[in-house]
Specification:
single chain; about 180 residues; elongated
């Protein structure tokens, strides 16, 4: 099976980018005052039940996290508390996956997020559309593409990824 160029690029990014962008996103919660930023974030036991629910994967290390990281996560938790339960669960799972990553995997995820944000809006949209198509492929076909990717050497992966995209050749969902 030959793989289409845009699908190749998407698969390259997907397989090279562990899901863990939660820590790489910027806060969207309310702006804090200078006084609030200087105050030490609360200990785990001082968090509200809603905050603890979303931040549960961080419980074991919460009190040892640097104050700026706890403050950032609290800001995010304020926004997350407004989301539907299924979205909050998805975020909780992403946090848990991030916590399980090695420092190298986290560095790689951050680097991949920077690469993604360096793309033009059109390239990001194309990548998103290709990812959606990949997600709609039958599981067996997705697994086959992943196996093909893992069978390539690092040099082959670079060459495979550098094939110029041909938008008309991207398969429609389910093909």
């Amino acid at each position: 099976m030959t793989m289409k160029p845009l699908l190749r690029t998407t698969l390259c990014l997907l397989l090279a980018m562990p899901v863990g962008h939660v820590a790489a996103t910027s806060p969207t919660g309310p702006v804090q005052t200078a006084t609030a930023e200087r105050a030490a974030p609360p200990t785990w036991n001082a968090l509200t039940p809603a905050q603890r629910e979303v931040l549960a994967p961080l419980q074991a290390e919460w009190d040892n996290l640097p104050a700026h990281k706890r403050a950032h996560m609290l800001q995010r938790a304020e926004h997350w508390a407004t989301l539907p339960p299924e979205k909050r669960e998805e975020i909780r799972q992403r946090i848990a996956r991030w916590q399980q990553m090695t420092p190298e995997e986290r560095r790689e995820a951050r680097a991949n997020m920077r690469k993604f944000h360096d793309l033009s809006p059109q390239q990001r949209e194309q990548l998103h559309a290709t990812f959606e198509r990949f997600q709609h492929l039958p599981p067996q076909q997705r697994e086959q593409l992943i196996r093909q990717w893992h069978a390539l050497s690092p040099q082959q992966r670079l060459q495979w990824r550098e094939v110029p995209p041909a938008p008309a050749s991207v398969p429609a969902p389910g093909h």
